[in-house]
Amino acid sequence: MILVTLILGFLFGLTLQYASLNKFNTISGMATLDNLTVAKAIAVAVGLGAILINIEIGAGLASFHVKPMILGGLVFGGILFGAGMAILGYCPGTLAISLGEGSIDALLGIIGGILAGVIYTLILPSIQGVLGPNMGTMSLRTTFDSNLIFYVLLFLVGAVFIGTAFVLNKVEKSTNYRWLVSGIVLAILNVIVFSKFASDRPIGASTTYPYVGDVLAGLTQNDYFTKIQKPGNWELIFLGGAFLAGLIGSLVKKTFRFQLVYENWEKYKGTSKTKRAVWAFVGGFVLIFGARMAGGCTSGHVLSGGMQVAFSSLLFAVVVFASLLLTGKFFYKK
């Protein structure tokens, strides 16, 4: 099972690397609306994945793993996650891939994220009231008893997401369709991970950070660690595969190099390495703290949750992208 998880993580890493979805310039470019690759790939992955995974579940080959609608956590966590994503320029999963490529700011973001995981474990009992109320698990499937209505709406939702990706591509006037390939592969990869014959769980990444942090800090005798221990261990192995994909892929393409300041950061924030290092650490901390409040990240909520048409994940996605764009507008002023 460890080998299977490692291979799945490796494929995940190669898929994102293929369309540069792990790059600082790509993700921060989304925050400034200079690059729509991330939005296009996610839209295709969610649209196609929603159709495939729900058919897979309907056939009894997989199970639903819908995250609960914990309103405060989703809203406040989504705001923090979007801001951290804009400043850091990475997601919890892409950090591992970019680290494999030699990105020093990704390493600093990981360190900030691990610290955030430890702090979150320590203060969780005192912020439980902020996270609620818990409205239970809600999705398109739980809303409609009729299979006919459900599948008709499912295909419509899938078509809207995929169509949106092509509209964005037309707006961007891009002739590069690597985002489309990556989006399709991400959908298929999620179908495999969801399968009862593979992992029988959604793809995720952010639980790795409190898991590693709590183990390093010796904070393993608490209810939260007990809850995250199993998914955290799986995600750590998965991200280990993603790291290897970044490393091997960059070595094969001869693009591996240690780098802290990238073009998009230099364009808006200057060439100071100290400034970039500080903000990378801060961005990583805010990103993971927000992910833990919301109970997921880009992989676990936006992709895996979106493919299940989970209302909690769709709410999280809306809040994250709004926060991402708002932060980008003010943080990346020239």
What does this structure look like?
There is one protein chain. With 334 residues, this protein is mainly alpha-helical. It has helices at 2-18, 24-31, 37-58, 71-88, 92-100, 104-131, 140-143, 147-172, 178-194, 208-217, 223-252, 263-269, 273-294, 298-307, 311-331.
Q: What would a concise description of this structure say?
A:
Helices cover 75% and strands 0% of the residues. The chain contains 15 helices and no strands. α1 (2-18) packs antiparallel against α9 (178-194), α4 (71-88) packs antiparallel against α6 and α4 runs parallel beside α15.
Notable traits:
334 residues, mainly alpha, 15 helices, 75% helix, 0% strand, globular
* Total separate domains: 1
The count of β-strands is: 0
Fraction of helical residues: over 70%
Q: SSE string, helix = H, strand = E?
A: HHHHHHHHHHHHHHH
Described by the principal axes of the CA atoms, the overall outline is globular
Class based on secondary structure composition and strand pairing: mainly alpha
Q: What is the percentage of strand-forming residues?
A: under 5%
Report the span from N to C terminus.
48 Å
Number of helices: 15
Q: How confident is the prediction overall: mean pLDDT? A: 97
